[in-house]
Amino acid sequence: MHKSWFLFPVLLLSALACTKSKNDSPDSTKQPVTAEQTLSKLVVIADQLEPAFDPYVNEYSLAGGETYKNKISINTAPVNPNLHVVINGVPLRSDFTTDPMPLVAGANVFAIDLVDSAGTTVNTYKLNVQRIQELPDEILADLSTSDGLLTPPYSPYMTNYELVVSASTSVLTVSPLPNYPDECELEINGLTIEKQKGGYDVTVNPGSTTVTIIVKGRSGRSKTYTITVTRPAA
Fold first, then answer.
1. How high is the pLDDT of residue 195?
2. Which alpha helices (DSSP H) does 91-187 contain, by range?
3. In 3-state terms, what secondary structure has residue 18?
4. What range does the domain containing 49 cover?
5. Last residue of some domain: 75, 107, 131?
6. Which helix (H) or strand (E) holds 71?
């Protein structure tokens, strides 16, 4: 009798434990996402995703982890054309590209929902974007020349420089690098330079030549850098 009484609660507890484990499994009621409930693509224009896009991976960030940009645009589309894409509560346009969306300094989260005709969200992707504090957009990150050394050495907030080149230098390549190369305008001696060129050739005659660099930022601010170039007589 004593042995049977001891065995009964042990068997009962074991049975209850098995039942609880089966019913409380986190995946027991989860419905798998079908192929038609996924995105066919997810592109952050001019940036790379991390990890690379996979329809069955639901969370992403920008490669590199951080950005100085103050806006991003997303291009995406559902596999099933009957589903709608809603990003942070705003339906996606018919061309599947968002208008440029502002980024605040710090963490930004974009919820990308796939919604059916009944208004039910059937799948959600998340894009995390970390924007670091913006640098002044009218400032040059660097300024270099093909000959001579700037005096004083380049500093972003120093705007006037002297440069002595060799007597044989008739053309000097000036290479300004803005903080935001793709989002500002550069003028050298009154001429707008092409962003992809990276440098601009200035004719240097014996004596003194002034090179004026104007940086126009997207904010509307601008800054002027001046290099006084001296070329000795041959």
1. 63
2. none
3. helix
4. 35-131
5. 131
6. strand 71-72
Q: Which two three-digit tokens encode residue 79?
A: 């596999």
Residue 173 tokens read as 């390549």
Residue 18: the pLDDT is 43
Positions of the chain with pLDDT lower than 50, given as ranges: 1-28
Is residue 116 a part of any domain in this protein? yes
Matching residue, tokens 């000959």: 147
The residue type at 133? Q
Say whether both 98 and 150 belong to one domain.
Answer: no
| pLDDT at position 12 | 41
The residue type of 97 is T
State whether 126 and 147 are in the same domain. no
Model pTM?
A: 0.51
Distance CA 20, CA 12 (A): 12
Burial 125-135 (b: 16+ CB within 10 A, else e): bebebebeeee
Q: In the prediction, which pLDDT does 157 show?
A: 85
| Chain centre to alpha carbon of residue 19 | 49
Do 160 and 186 lie in a common domain? yes
- Look at residues 118, 38, 24 and name the one whose alpha carbon lies nearest to residue 78: 38
CA distances from 8 to 19, 104, 218 (A): 17, 63, 78
Q: Specify whether 42 is located in the same domain as 86.
A: yes
217: nearest Cα among 51, 68, 40, 25: 68
